[in-house]
């Protein structure tokens, strides 16, 4: 098997990142923003968060341009010290991915229990989604990327539907006054929004499948700008339709937004089960990517001989256990916060180390050159 | 193995139209070589070498089946071979002499360019090359006697040709040859089956079809090692990429026009003696929803029916499952009045929605199967009796609700709206899986199974082509011919996923 | 490989039983419900019983009446002879407990996914408990945010007993009647439970449509209860005329009609298009509001004498009379709110919030209420009315 036979095009990469980023965040962001900003200026925080993440994406692409065809773990090479740093990073990333997988699964069960099946044990719903992701992992990187392409239009379509059908209920005055409390709350909000774009760290691994000349951040940045646009629409819609105060206290404001929708009276009475259905697809995408990356890192770095499916099942097992560690919804959200902070920290730290490595390599090369002269 | 099957080695050279304008000098070997370069790879091109009057070398070329071979034998070969007045050969008017006094065929023309001779040749005229003469003689030997070709039964169209393939391989090839007079259309014969050794033909258009697929098809067929291949359906199963799937990885059709369209788009076609079905590969998922009619009607009409077919596929697969999910799990999604009336009509039905649906679905599958087997005259009666009587009686007996009958009927109708029969079967099978999952986990079950099907599809290949293209990976030019069918003038690119060697259809 | 997966899926599917399976015909759809206080003697009786069981006095007791569909009668031809619903009441301290009492008496599980209307008794509304009373009906996932909420004058459960001719059941009728709001002037905008929840949380004054039972025959949706934002207590009623003024000020009286008089003769104008603009200014430490109402309409009924409606001058006279009438209606309700109820139900505060945020922060806590900033604000009303056309120009007089 030649892992590099499949090449991701620029657009596919962008959509993969978008699919990864849209996950739990889209359901909970309006609440988190309303709670931390406390005015209707949350949307500005989204823009700031976007800019922050765009810079990160740019930096990741820049870093990988030095190592075309290599993943972040692969770029450390085989030299003694660098190799061990690589191994450390791979352990950190695996831990991160496994916990993230568990967190997403946990939120999934909460949502499914709340809106679709209220008496089915959570274990069963989680089991089925893990079965699906495990199966997806066996299809390899091409399968994962193509799955993203297949589900992406559904997600966009349903979100657009919700926004459009809520327009007539929206009171546009609700987002005024702008920046009444000053800049401070907006900065507070950035804390939330910068985390909501988390998912860009998959670039560390997926860029290995791109052609060297395709390593340009523009399209991926356009992709996360698109996500930001969706976030913005949803957050503003929540403020305009259900109000700031209520947004603060509803667990999943996007679902509440969907509940407000009444499509041409009599056709479909309520669309939130449909919305949840499509959201399950999007969270499946996120989970499949995470599951795949965890599997891939383990296979490439630790047990080269094991079969992909075996590793994927072992990861499922661990994630399954972690899924049920948080007892309440609040604890689950706390787990989510920890995971996100860890992810963001890891991304920044990895970037730092990567650039340091490039710098050292360049230095030593220059030294080598000058000595040769 | 390969060499055994294909008597002629194919040349890798791709003939573009300009390249075969070869001036011939009168040297017969050179001319024959030129013609062989153009059409020599096809096995239905017959080359006949003989001597005129035991002295002068001459060669006849004709397309097997398109020409009246009795007439060639009687009126061309016999007089030429028995011709004795060799002296006349050196005279300048030898050609005129032959025309006027030797050959007894009714119509003939002479041609000085090989390029111009190609079109009449491929439509059934015979070429005669005589050593030392700088002109080609074309005999009118076209044969028009139609065999009993009937309209294909499994793929009926309103607008479009009424002819279908028959069980004879050569008749089928003729129907294609008659539609494509491109010398690059290549037909290669071979024999299949250890004992049966039945004939099959491999068709493709040089310079359009990607060489990879031709080689791959050849290789796969050459690997078939079985006693007998009866039908292309058998062959299909022996050479497909993935055996563990319900989705077909090759299209089959009874229609020559559909086959021709496939050839033109860069697919490889396999015909088998004894089967009225041609096989086309590689294919992708969206091709399953195409009917040749789409290209004969105006584009608005075709786009509408295309969308209707996708809707039909959706209904055929999901409708009973959605009904079960709504009735047993998500009653809130139904409009209030509908929920009340469904509840009212189910009042007294002893079974849960799932059992009710399964009973009715199995009944309708039985009816369908029985309808196919029964003699044609009785078949329709059974359909009506079964459908109406059982449906009505079941409702009256309170075993099923009237809404369920509507759901089942709608599902059955929807499944007939998909053009390819083997695809319908795939959807029918998946429907039962969907129903089962809907009965256990409601909408969540449906979406999980849907995700599973999608994962399965992205892993599927047809001759190495991604099955879900042009959707994943995105191939925009083909989107014009996916959910809708754009005006023909806009669709000037061949489907890039098939990696055709000639990328443009027109323009 | 794939086989193994498929196998495991099938096995799992068959192993799992169907936890959430409830067939549609085993469900009792609740279409409407009314929450009332208990009558004196009933209250005593329930209290006694409660004390016997629990050994202490109940903090509160509500009586909830559920209207449940009988689906079988709907589909059969007898539909309009049989009553296709039944009402069932239960008493309890909290909504959910009350709900569960029903389970001991009827086999069908109550399902609220098609709940159309919630009627809350005036007496409960006046205690300020409206937020708590509706809490269950918005918190539970079965509930929807579009269920309409009403306040009843008199007993709520009586409304649910009036089956109207041509209509299936009161619960559905309530929603359908409420849909007439653009045409009826005295009917307030519908208040879906989602919106009401927003109002309760935001602590700004609001109104909730009123529903009144009439002589055991039918019911009327007109007028509204005024709720004070701070306490969520209902402080009084707005009548139909008040509602007309309110709708005009809010610019929501799109299809309403206005009866005005010119020289003691009446005429009617049907509004076709209207809007209102609030402007705010802070002058000398006082709040000045200007409400500009713009209305356009058709001249639909004529009782005037000696006026040729085709003449421009005459029509201007008619327009002036119309403006005057609209202004009268609007000022009446504004005066009532400022002097009697001291509650800003017009959402004037939003204008302040937008225009002068600093000022808003200052007055936020004392906006409503007696001597509040709202009551002391200067509110000016100006009206611009236009008569677009006058239908056919028949001269009957």
From TrEMBL, chain B:
It is found in: Cell membrane; Membrane. One of its GO terms (cellular component) is plasma membrane. Its main location: membrane. It is a multi-pass membrane protein. InterPro entries: Spore_Ger, UPF0353/GerABKA_families. The keyword Transmembrane helix applies. GO terms for biological process: spore germination. Keywords: Membrane, Transmembrane, Transmembrane helix. Belongs to the GerABKA family. This is Spore germination protein.
TrEMBL record, chain C:
The keyword Transmembrane helix does not apply. It is found in: Membrane. PROSITE patterns: PROKAR_LIPOPROTEIN. Residues 312-339 form a coiled coil. Residues 22-212 form the Spore germination protein N-terminal domain. It is a lipid-anchor. Residues 223-389 form the Spore germination GerAC-like C-terminal domain. The keyword Ribosomal protein does not apply. InterPro entries: GerAC_N, Spore_GerAC-like, Spore_GerAC-like_C, Spore_GerAC_C_sf. GO terms for cellular component: membrane. GO terms for biological process: spore germination. Keywords: Coiled coil, Germination, Lipoprotein, Membrane, Palmitate, Signal. Belongs to the GerABKC lipoprotein family. This is Uncharacterized protein. It comes from Anaerobacillus arseniciselenatis.
């Amino acid at each position: 098997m030649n892992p590099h036979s499949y090449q991701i095009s620029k657009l596919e990469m962008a959509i993969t990142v978008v699919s990864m980023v849209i996950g739990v965040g889209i359901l909970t962001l309006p609440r988190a923003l309303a709670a931390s900003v406390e005015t209707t200026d949350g949307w500005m925080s989204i823009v700031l968060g976007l800019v922050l993440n765009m810079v990160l994406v740019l930096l990741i692409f820049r870093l990988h341009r030095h190592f075309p065809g290599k993943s972040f773990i692969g770029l450390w090479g085989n030299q003694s010290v660098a190799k061990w740093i690589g191994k450390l990073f791979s352990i950190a990333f695996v831990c991160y991915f496994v916990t993230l997988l568990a967190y997403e699964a946990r939120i999934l069960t909460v949502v499914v229990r709340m809106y679709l099946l209220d008496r089915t044990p959570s274990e069963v719903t989680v089991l089925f989604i893990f079965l699906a992701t495990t199966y997806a992992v066996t299809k390899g990187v091409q399968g994962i990327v193509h799955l993203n392409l297949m589900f992406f239009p559904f997600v966009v379509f349903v979100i657009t539907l919700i926004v459009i059908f809520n327009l007539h209920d929206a009171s546009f005055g609700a987002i005024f006054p702008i920046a009444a409390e000053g800049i401070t709350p907006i900065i507070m909000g950035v804390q939330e929004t910068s985390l909501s774009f988390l998912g860009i760290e998959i670039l560390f691994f997926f860029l290995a499948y791109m052609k060297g000349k395709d390593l340009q951040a523009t399209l991926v940045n356009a992709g996360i700008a698109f996500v930001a646009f969706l976030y913005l629409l949803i957050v503003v819609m929540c403020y305009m339709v259900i109000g700031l105060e209520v947004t603060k206290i509803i667990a999943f404001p996007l679902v509440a937004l969907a509940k407000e929708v009444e499509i041409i009276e009599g056709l479909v009475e309520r669309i939130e089960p449909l919305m949840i259905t499509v959201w399950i697809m999007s969270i499946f995408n996120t989970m499949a990517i995470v599951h795949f990356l965890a599997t891939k890192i383990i296979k490439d770095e630790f047990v080269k001989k094991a079969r992909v499916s075996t590793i994927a099942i072992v990861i499922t097992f661990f994630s399954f256990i972690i899924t049920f560690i948080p007892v309440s919804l609040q604890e689950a959200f706390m787990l989510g916060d920890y995971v996100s902070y860890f992810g963001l920290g890891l991304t920044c730290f990895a970037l730092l180390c990567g650039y340091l490595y490039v710098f050292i390599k360049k230095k030593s090369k220059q030294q080598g050159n000058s000595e040769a002269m | 193995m390969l060499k055994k099957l294909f008597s002629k080695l194919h040349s890798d050279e791709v003939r573009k139209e300009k390249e075969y304008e070869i001036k011939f000098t009168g040297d017969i070997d050179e001319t024959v070589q030129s013609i062989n370069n153009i059409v020599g790879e096809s096995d239905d091109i017959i080359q006949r070498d003989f001597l005129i009057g035991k002295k002068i070398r001459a060669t006849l070329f004709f397309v097997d089946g398109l020409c009246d071979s009795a007439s060639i034998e009687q009126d061309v070969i016999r007089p030429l071979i028995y011709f004795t007045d060799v002296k006349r050969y050196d005279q300048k008017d030898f050609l005129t002499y032959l025309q006027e006094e030797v050959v007894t065929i009714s119509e003939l023309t002479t041609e000085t360019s090989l390029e111009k001779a190609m079109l009449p040749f491929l439509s059934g005229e015979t070429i005669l090359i005589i050593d030392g003469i700088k002109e080609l003689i074309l005999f009118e030997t076209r044969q028009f006697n139609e065999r009993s070709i009937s309209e294909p039964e499994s793929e009926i169209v309103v607008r479009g040709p009424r002819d279908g393939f028959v069980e004879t391989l050569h008749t089928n090839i003729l129907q294609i040859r008659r539609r494509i007079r491109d010398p690059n259309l290549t037909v290669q014969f071979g024999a299949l089956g250890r004992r049966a050794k039945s004939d099959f033909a491999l068709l493709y258009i040089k310079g359009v079809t990607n060489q990879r697929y031709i080689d791959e098809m050849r290789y796969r067929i050459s690997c078939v090692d079985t006693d007998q291949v009866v039908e292309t359906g058998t062959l299909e199963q022996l050479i497909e990429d993935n055996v563990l799937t319900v989705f077909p990885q090759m299209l089959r059709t009874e229609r020559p026009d559909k086959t021709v369209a496939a050839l033109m788009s860069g697919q490889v076609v396999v015909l088998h003696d004894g089967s009225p079905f041609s096989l086309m590969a590689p294919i992708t998922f969206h091709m399953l929803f195409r009917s040749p009619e789409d290209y004969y009607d105006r584009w608005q009409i075709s786009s509408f029916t295309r969308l209707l077919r996708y809707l039909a596929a959706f209904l055929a697969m999901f409708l009973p499952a959605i009904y079960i999910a709504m009735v047993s799990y998500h009653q809130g999604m139904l409009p209030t009045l509908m929920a009340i009336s469904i509840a009212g009509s189910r009042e007294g039905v002893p079974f849960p929605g799932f059992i009710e649906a399964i009973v009715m679905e199995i009944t309708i599958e039985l009816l369908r199967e029985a309808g196919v087997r029964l003699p044609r005259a009785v078949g329709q009666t059974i359909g009506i009796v079964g459908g109406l009587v059982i449906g009505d009686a079941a409702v009256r007996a309170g075993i099923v609700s009237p809404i369920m009958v509507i759901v089942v009927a709608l599902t059955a109708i929807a499944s007939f709206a998909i053009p390819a029969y083997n695809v319908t079967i795939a959807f029918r099978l998946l429907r039962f899986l969907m129903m089962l999952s809907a009965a256990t986990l409601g909408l969540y079950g449906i979406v999980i199974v849907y995700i599973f099907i999608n994962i399965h599809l992205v892993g599927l290949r047809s001759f190495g082509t991604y099955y879900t293209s042009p959707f994943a990976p995105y191939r925009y030019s083909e989107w014009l011919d996916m959910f809708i069918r754009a005006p023909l003038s806009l669709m000037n690119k061949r489907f890039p996923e098939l990696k055709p060697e000639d990328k443009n259809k027109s323009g | 490989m794939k086989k193994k997966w498929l196998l495991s899926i099938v096995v799992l599917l068959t192993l799992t039983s169907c936890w959430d399976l409830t067939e549609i015909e085993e469900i009792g759809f609740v279409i409407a419900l009314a929450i009332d206080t208990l009558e004196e003697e009933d209250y005593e009786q329930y209290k006694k019983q409660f004390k016997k069981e629990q050994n202490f006095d109940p903090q509160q007791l509500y009586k909830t009446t559920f209207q449940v569909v009988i689906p079988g009668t709907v589909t059969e031809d007898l539909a309009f002879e049989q009553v296709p619903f039944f009402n069932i009441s239960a008493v309890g301290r909290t909504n959910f407990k009350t709900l569960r009492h029903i389970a001991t008496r009827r086999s069908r599980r109550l399902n609220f996914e098609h709940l159309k209307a919630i009627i809350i008794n005036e007496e409960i509304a006046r205690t300020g408990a409206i937020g708590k009373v509706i809490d269950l009906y918005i918190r539970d996932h079965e509930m929807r945010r579009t269920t309409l909420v009403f306040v009843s004058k008199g007993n709520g459960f009586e409304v649910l007993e009036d089956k109207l001719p041509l209509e299936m059941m009161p619960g559905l009728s309530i929603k359908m009647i409420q849909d007439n709001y653009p045409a009826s002037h005295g009917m307030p905008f519908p208040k879906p439970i989602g919106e009401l929840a927003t109002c309760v949380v935001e602590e700004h004054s609001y109104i909730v449509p009123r529903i009144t039972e009439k002589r055991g025959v039918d019911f009327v949706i007109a007028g509204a209860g005024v709720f004070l934002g701070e306490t969520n207590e209902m402080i009084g009623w707005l009548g139909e005329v008040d509602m007309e003024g309110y709708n005009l000020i809010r610019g929501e009286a799109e299809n309403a009609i206005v009866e005005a008089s010119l020289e003691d003769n009446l005429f009617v104008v049907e509004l076709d298009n209207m809007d209102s603009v609030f402007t705010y200014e802070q002058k000398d430490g006082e709040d000045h509001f200007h409400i500009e109402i713009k209305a356009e309409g058709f001249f639909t009924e004529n009782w005037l004498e000696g006026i040729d409606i085709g003449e421009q001058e005459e029509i201007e006279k008619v327009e002036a009379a119309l403006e005057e009438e609209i202004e009268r209606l609007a000022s009446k309700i504004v005066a009532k709110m400022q002097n009697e109820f001291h509650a800003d139900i017009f959402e004037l505060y939003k204008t302040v919030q937008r225009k002068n945020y600093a000022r808003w922060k200052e007055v936020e806590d004392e906006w409503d209420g007696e001597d509040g900033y709202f009551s002391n604000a200067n509110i000016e009303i100006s009206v611009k009315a236009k008569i677009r056309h006058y239908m056919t120009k028949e001269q009957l007089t």
